[in-house]
Automatic annotation (TrEMBL):
<keyword id="KW-0449">Lipoprotein</keyword>
<dbReference type="InterPro" id="IPR050198">
    <property type="entry name" value="Non-receptor_tyrosine_kinases"/>
</dbReference>
<dbReference type="InterPro" id="IPR000719">
    <property type="entry name" value="Prot_kinase_dom"/>
</dbReference>
<feature type="domain" description="Protein kinase">
    <location>
        <begin position="27"/>
        <end position="277"/>
    </location>
</feature>
<feature type="binding site">
    <location>
        <position position="152"/>
    </location>
    <ligand>
        <name>Mg(2+)</name>
    </ligand>
</feature>
<feature type="active site" description="Proton acceptor">
    <location>
        <position position="147"/>
    </location>
</feature>
<dbReference type="InterPro" id="IPR020635">
    <property type="entry name" value="Tyr_kinase_cat_dom"/>
</dbReference>
<keyword id="KW-0519">Myristate</keyword>
<dbReference type="InterPro" id="IPR001245">
    <property type="entry name" value="Ser-Thr/Tyr_kinase_cat_dom"/>
</dbReference>
<keyword id="KW-0547">Nucleotide-binding</keyword>
<dbReference type="GO" id="GO:0005524">
    <property type="term" value="F:ATP binding"/>
</dbReference>
<dbReference type="Pfam" id="PF07714">
    <property type="entry name" value="PK_Tyr_Ser-Thr"/>
</dbReference>
<dbReference type="GO" id="GO:0046872">
    <property type="term" value="F:metal ion binding"/>
</dbReference>
<dbReference type="InterPro" id="IPR011009">
    <property type="entry name" value="Kinase-like_dom_sf"/>
</dbReference>
<protein>
    <recommendedName>
        <fullName>Protein kinase domain-containing protein</fullName>
    </recommendedName>
</protein>
<dbReference type="GO" id="GO:0004713">
    <property type="term" value="F:protein tyrosine kinase activity"/>
</dbReference>
<keyword id="KW-0460">Magnesium</keyword>
Amino acid sequence: MHHFLYIVQHYTKDADGLCTRLIKPKLMEGTVAAQDEFSRNVKVGDYRGKKVAVKCIKHDATAQAFVAEASVMTQLRHNNLVQLLGVIVEEKGSLFIVTEYMAKGSLVDYLRSRGRSVIGGDRLINFSMDVCKAMEYLEANNFVHRDLAARNVLVSEDNIAKVSDFGLTKEASSTQDTAKLPVKWTSPEALREKSFSTKSDVWSYGILLWEIYSFGRVPYPRIPLKEVVPRVEKGYKMDAPDGCPAVVYDIMKQCWTLDPVVRPSFRELREKLQEIISNELYR
């Protein structure tokens, strides 16, 4: 297993069994849209002649939890998950996460910068399906993402959406006060009793679908943040985004079922999306 996980500092000085040494990453080039928070701490590197993304995180509890989980995560392989290639830990405490390079940046920026005049309904349903397939794969592997949102989905050169940053939040959410959780994306039971599960990921997926179909708007528009939770607990659900097909809005509402047991699984969601795509109901 260990050859997947390069947790040694000297690889930056010496290839030593790697086909290439990991070079000091050069700054991310790309569109203004890609210059969001993601690209500020992500640089482009070269690994075995291929572009890779190198993300630096400070060495704290989250970093340690990530290293502990990284061996599991390098074994998670799916076309709609951003592939983790390895981890480098420097003695002075920085942690570098090396992943496949995603040319078009985060999904939320992709949607905001292009908008409905550029992106058709087929592209939106395909993004929805891409994310669902990744989540079905994580579900089958009993892996809970905990921070699924359009900002944590990246878009490849050929417009495939891939889920990213899984595993970075596990330690954070168990030690943090709930105040630091992304309230608008987190299920009521996860906010209430920190009960994270695949079903809480399904809730977040419903919010992500709303983000896709509203071209990257912030969820719960016009509702003050402190009012979101009490209203949601009473059963409030967002309206459908403009132009969103009824069949897709119906899926969002099922994801936002207050009782997690009643929420669909990602497998069921993928089957519903497949039916929508096969019958071209998204038009």
